[in-house]
Amino acid sequence: MDFLDLEGMLSNLVSIGGQLLLLIIVYVIVAPIGRKAISKAMGHVAKRQKLNEGRKKTLENLLLNVFTYVLLFFFIVTFLGILGIPLAPVLAGAGIVGLAVGFGAQGLVSDIVTGFFILIEKQIDVDDYVTAGGHDGIVEELGLRTTQLRGFDGTLHFIPNRYIQAVNNHTRGNMRALVDMGIGYSENIDQAMEILQNVCDRFREDDRIKEGPDVVGVQSLGSSDVVLRVIAQTEKMLQWEVERDLRKAMKEALDDAGIEIPFPHRTIVQKETE
Amino acid sequence: MDFLDLEGMLSNLVSIGGQLLLLIIVYVIVAPIGRKAISKAMGHVAKRQKLNEGRKKTLENLLLNVFTYVLLFFFIVTFLGILGIPLAPVLAGAGIVGLAVGFGAQGLVSDIVTGFFILIEKQIDVDDYVTAGGHDGIVEELGLRTTQLRGFDGTLHFIPNRYIQAVNNHTRGNMRALVDMGIGYSENIDQAMEILQNVCDRFREDDRIKEGPDVVGVQSLGSSDVVLRVIAQTEKMLQWEVERDLRKAMKEALDDAGIEIPFPHRTIVQKETE
Amino acid sequence: MDFLDLEGMLSNLVSIGGQLLLLIIVYVIVAPIGRKAISKAMGHVAKRQKLNEGRKKTLENLLLNVFTYVLLFFFIVTFLGILGIPLAPVLAGAGIVGLAVGFGAQGLVSDIVTGFFILIEKQIDVDDYVTAGGHDGIVEELGLRTTQLRGFDGTLHFIPNRYIQAVNNHTRGNMRALVDMGIGYSENIDQAMEILQNVCDRFREDDRIKEGPDVVGVQSLGSSDVVLRVIAQTEKMLQWEVERDLRKAMKEALDDAGIEIPFPHRTIVQKETE
Amino acid sequence: MDFLDLEGMLSNLVSIGGQLLLLIIVYVIVAPIGRKAISKAMGHVAKRQKLNEGRKKTLENLLLNVFTYVLLFFFIVTFLGILGIPLAPVLAGAGIVGLAVGFGAQGLVSDIVTGFFILIEKQIDVDDYVTAGGHDGIVEELGLRTTQLRGFDGTLHFIPNRYIQAVNNHTRGNMRALVDMGIGYSENIDQAMEILQNVCDRFREDDRIKEGPDVVGVQSLGSSDVVLRVIAQTEKMLQWEVERDLRKAMKEALDDAGIEIPFPHRTIVQKETE
Amino acid sequence: MDFLDLEGMLSNLVSIGGQLLLLIIVYVIVAPIGRKAISKAMGHVAKRQKLNEGRKKTLENLLLNVFTYVLLFFFIVTFLGILGIPLAPVLAGAGIVGLAVGFGAQGLVSDIVTGFFILIEKQIDVDDYVTAGGHDGIVEELGLRTTQLRGFDGTLHFIPNRYIQAVNNHTRGNMRALVDMGIGYSENIDQAMEILQNVCDRFREDDRIKEGPDVVGVQSLGSSDVVLRVIAQTEKMLQWEVERDLRKAMKEALDDAGIEIPFPHRTIVQKETE
Amino acid sequence: MDFLDLEGMLSNLVSIGGQLLLLIIVYVIVAPIGRKAISKAMGHVAKRQKLNEGRKKTLENLLLNVFTYVLLFFFIVTFLGILGIPLAPVLAGAGIVGLAVGFGAQGLVSDIVTGFFILIEKQIDVDDYVTAGGHDGIVEELGLRTTQLRGFDGTLHFIPNRYIQAVNNHTRGNMRALVDMGIGYSENIDQAMEILQNVCDRFREDDRIKEGPDVVGVQSLGSSDVVLRVIAQTEKMLQWEVERDLRKAMKEALDDAGIEIPFPHRTIVQKETE
Amino acid sequence: MDFLDLEGMLSNLVSIGGQLLLLIIVYVIVAPIGRKAISKAMGHVAKRQKLNEGRKKTLENLLLNVFTYVLLFFFIVTFLGILGIPLAPVLAGAGIVGLAVGFGAQGLVSDIVTGFFILIEKQIDVDDYVTAGGHDGIVEELGLRTTQLRGFDGTLHFIPNRYIQAVNNHTRGNMRALVDMGIGYSENIDQAMEILQNVCDRFREDDRIKEGPDVVGVQSLGSSDVVLRVIAQTEKMLQWEVERDLRKAMKEALDDAGIEIPFPHRTIVQKETE
């Protein structure tokens, strides 16, 4: 290195600084304009194609996402170019740096590939309730690299797409409401089933319920109770509400009929103290 | 870059835009036509080859699936080609990008290879009840890359084929109904087995049952009860129903005969308060 | 692309279509003939070499399997060849596609290698009862790529061979029947062992039993009972039946002798209410 | 090696020593100046862009972090250069050393890539309460390579970014306070729900609470109690406090109304000593 | 392909068929001769070198194993050679097929390397009782690729050597017999230890016991009993037998001395019904 | 090989032996001198830079560590060089040996990279109490490749740095003391909280305590008790001591006030013997 | 192959046979001599360097180990050389075989690298009591590839060094003896601590104890007892003995003072039969 040509270096620095400034200004102007344009265009398309709300949000988010990353990518490449660090040879090289970068970046590619297919196969839409990558919640954003879920406890989960092995979508059709009622071993099973079925019949008119509810039979002989199972098909996301209402109604019906819902039993054998 | 040849760039942009528009139009026309053609052709073939319904749906889904992906692939390649980004050299190159893409895409290849063999080996048909990749449900679609299962609780599971290690198909033959009945330690085992066998004999005529049911013997000596096991072979998907009916009938038979189904026992030794 | 030479393209398409048709016809004719020939040849060989039934089925299945895959492979190669897509350069290339395919296909090679050794080392025969890859059942088919097990509950398990880490074959020799009997702490151990040994002696003549049964001693001092262990060697697959019969006989013998099989005990210390 | 040219070696050593000294001096001077400059610049930018405190700290930490590592990198390269060990050929080579280094360093690249996206996607800000990589706590620093969390028990967790699979951010919106109250099976459910709802209504004015609280219904029929669930939306980080207050108020309200919060029940069946 | 030179193809086929036949005949003759020769040679060597039985069987099995695989390898290579498929270029190539095969076969190499060292380091001999790869049993065969263990329940485990991480050999020296005896909290510990030590002294002459048994002291203060531990060194494989005998003798000795072996205790506090 | 030129070989051997001897002597002299020089230099630097004791020990250990490995490396290279085995081509080659070595050594590089960053980021100092790689203890030495922790039970843990995923440093700030006190369901919660707060106030003056302690409220409604939580911030490493003292004082205070700390409760329902 | 030059082949075979014989004879002579020489040399060095016994055995074992493997390596290479199979090109090649071997052998290299550092860093000596790779026991041999531990139950564990992630050495300094004593809730804590401290003081003179024992305070408030913790530092490997003696002495001291060691408590609430 030649430490002496200070003047040349300075003028050089000034020139570089100017270019960087220009670059940043362009970036700052282009970014918000592009984002607005995308949002607007998306609105038009959604209206004409009659996309539902969730799908529209999904696509809009994604396009914004792609736009941001592409812009960022060009920004970085240009930035480095101005500084005189060409990215191409580094990316093309196969030395250690290349190897390390290649391995390190493989996660990124996996994220994008997985995300691409999640979108293409319509596995997830914004506002769906899904389980993915060990977390569950309402989808807030489906990004190129990361999916954001809002958990029921308010937590926002950021899940890189590659960690999403299987998507369990809980909002693609009716859901099942399932209530297990345990009755005493000495009760008459037929009578209990009839009482529960009567409760079920009262619920049949409920708007939230699509099918059933029905008593399906003796699910198991527990250690202290005979378990009867009731199943219904409900509107999606309303299964918990229906279960709560069914549980309350059936408990009260059994109480009214004097049928025991037993506590854990224990048979005691007294042994003579030896 | 030369920022000044605006005119040339514009005319260039227009030309590119026109080509892209044409491409999109072609895509929009070809896609639905192809899909209908496949469905129709499939219908004819299914009739002639007397394929059962499940197999027919499986193949139809798959062909549509393949068709969509192939079309998409050509769409993307052409799209990039129009934009002047040739895909071939990227795919052939072995630099960092290539490495990262290769590694990242390896999951995709695994998906397709696994899916191909699941189909070829007829492991799964649409409407089968299977366990795969840690989820179980009715197969809704068997795709090139993803298998869709509808869980009993209504959830739709999207499982990339590579995560399907072993397929457990519960609809390839008769299924077993198994009921364990615990009787008191002081009861006569022979008498209890006779009573249960009588119940079994009543079920023997049942259309849902293919073999048995039969009392196979003393399965275990539990901490509070002697466990007798009853086994039957049933029509597929009806095993739970049969188990519920058997359970109810056998519980009532034991009750009628005055044979105790015991609660958990505890023998109490009173110790003099020291 | 030249969109104008429609005539040439058409005649080209017709020619290709004809070849494909021919290919499919040949395939449809050759496949069943080959399969029958293999089955017949296998029958002759099996008779002459005095192979047992399981081994014969294993080999026949495998040969049919290999035949199907080889045929399929040539079918696909020829098919692609007719369409003008040569497979060789793709397979030989080392670009991204090659890399991805190589990695993705490595599972397939593992399957075949593992399957090959399972066969060569005679680890599994059709109709054996084995545990492999986390599932257990009767072997229905041992394929080049996949092993099929029929679980006792009727489920058919398809297990890619590579997921079979260790094979546990439960039908290669006699099996052990093991029954643990708990007696009260206040009973005489010698007397109880004598009574159980008497039961064992009655079973000694049983055809299903190869060795024993015998009382081996005090296996453990449980929290409420003294556990005596009885062991026998039985004909394979009959161990559960023998265990059930032994359990019933020994329980009844202890009852007759007035020896207690205790419930869980608890010693209660009453504390003065403070 | 020529062991004799001691003089030349000495003068050489002196020259090298001098250069190293100069390098260290430059480093010692540049480092603190650079850090101060960054902090100041960050302060100005934060004011003008109206960044919130957390984001400001995040960016400042990160810039200092990047600055330190870049400086360190140039320091090491220059250092080795003075000693006559050029780094470039080693990094470019593909021999064993290169291979080992490439593999070994891949973790480092993963750290940086992941960290970069955590920042870009604003998954974490300093002072957020997050769960990441199996630990949870308040973010103290978000670095290029490592994220530091302060656990509630005072422990400082250093988590390399690559081990952060999914980020769960508990401070991105309101949080849920959830209290389950168990009442006796013999109590009137409607009455209990009314009492609890009254308590909820008293809390409605609470500043910390954004929505609710409300009794949602019978969550489950436990083995000894009927469980009623109360849910509220609270200011972030105040959910535990609200839960504690709700729990106390509702317990006291049930006590006042004479509604039982039951202990675990057991039904005892006395058996005649045999 | 030229479909017309049928004559040439036929004569070609005949020639190939003849060669294959010759190959198979040679194989069928050479295989059994070689196996017998190895067994005999092994017998001579074993006698002269005074190898113990287990080692002899191990080596004989292994040599037969190696012989079989080498023969098989040459058979396959020759077979493919006759069919005109040279194996060498495939094995040497580095295309996709090569890559896939290389990765797929790496398990095989791992098996052989591990097996080689298990043998060289004498970790296992035939008839040893070992735990390896998650299974335990008596070694039936130690092969080049697979180790066969016979479990105590009669199952034959085939474990590819690569899955054997650590070998636990239970037959390389004396084994420990360990019995824990719980006595009541109100008993005199010194007295109980003396009584147990007396039992131990009676066992001291036992041929199966190499050292001890001895009472080592108060191992723990359990929730209901004071646990005394007795330890002995026994002949290998006899530890369970010795433990059973010790357990019986010590239980009877404590009974004779009137020292309580307590059931689980519970102190009950009666609360006034509120 | 020429077995006859014994004379030449001998003189060769002598020459080599002499060189090796010289090498060993140099090594034996240089090693201790270098170590002492480092320790001394470190002492001076530590004084001038006012490093705290832990940091000083950390750096000294590390420098000695690096010195030892560098010396060892040159020793081995020279040793092999004298024997005529040049290391360079082996390290540069890319054959099988190279591949195996490269993969095998990658763990070593990971160790060093991780260790380097643990040091640079000051995650650990000697004498810190940390949890790392699944073990916890006081740091005894932070090496280039291995970190040594002294567990509280006296065990010395050697942890290769690569297995240290996240470092949890328990000595970087105050620690939390947390005590949960369960009181009876029939007690007055306000009164109990007042009593506990009084105890807390007495502790407020304690030197070991930095903040609090305070009663934060009703943490949970247990199955038999109402749990009150007390939290304090203490000097690091003194949290357990403070917790023990708090626990004793609060237990005694509740006793004095006659507030019950309940045993597990059970409500018993007597059932008429059927 | 030319099947006719039988004479030439025979003379060739004889020549090869002779060379192999010579090789085996040389091996059989050199091996034991080398081993004895190493043992002797080691004895001298150990005396002069005053190595402790464990270190001496470690080094001797290791040298014998290295010697055996090096000899074996040359034996195999020469053996193959005589048979005309040169190993070098195979090892240098990068075809499939090379790839597979390289991957397969990578475990071997890992073993050696890890073993080398375990030795160099003196993590383990023969006769140490360590936990490594999931097993614990006394080190019997520390080899180049495998470490042998003798478990306390007599099992000999062979652990390939690569599976040793972290070494926990329990014989590098004093060990902790820890005894928890539970006393009744109604007992006076101060009095109980005084009594226990008295017992501790009696033990203070014990040779096996290096520090303490001391009562550190109320460790926890259990569900039925107040737990007091006693800690001591003991000579290594004697901690269990000391714990047993402490436990006995403290139990007897509490008994003498009439302080209750409580059984699990349960508070019973009688409910009127409804």
Brief synopsis:
In chain A, 50% of the residues lie in helices and 23% in strands. Chain A has 274 residues and is an alpha+beta fold. In chain A, a hairpin with a 4-residue loop joins β7 (209-221) and β8.
SS strand fraction of chain A: 15-25%
The secondary structure category of chain A is alpha+beta
The greatest inter-chain interface is formed by: B-C, 61 and 54 residues
**Rg of chain A, Cα atoms, Å:** 31 Å
Q: How many strands in all of chain A?
A: 9
Question: What distance lies between the first and last C-alpha atoms of chain A, to the nearest angstrom?
Answer: 99 Å
The biggest beta sheet of chain A is recorded as: 5 strands, antiparallel
Question: What pattern of helices and strands is seen along the backbone of chain A?
Answer: HHHHEEEEEEHEEHE
Multimerization state: homoheptamer
Shape of chain A: elongated
- Enumerate the spans of chain A where pLDDT stays under 50 for 5 or more consecutive residues: none
Strand order of the largest sheet of chain A: 4-3-2-1-5
Mean of pLDDT of chain A = 84
- Bin the helical content of chain A: 40-55%
Number of helices of chain A: 6
Subcellular location (chains A, B, C, D, E, F, G): Cell membrane
Main location (chains A, B, C, D, E, F, G): membrane
Domain Mechanosensitive ion channel MscS (chains A, B, C, D, E, F, G): 108-172
Protein name (chains A, B, C, D, E, F, G): Small conductance mechanosensitive channel
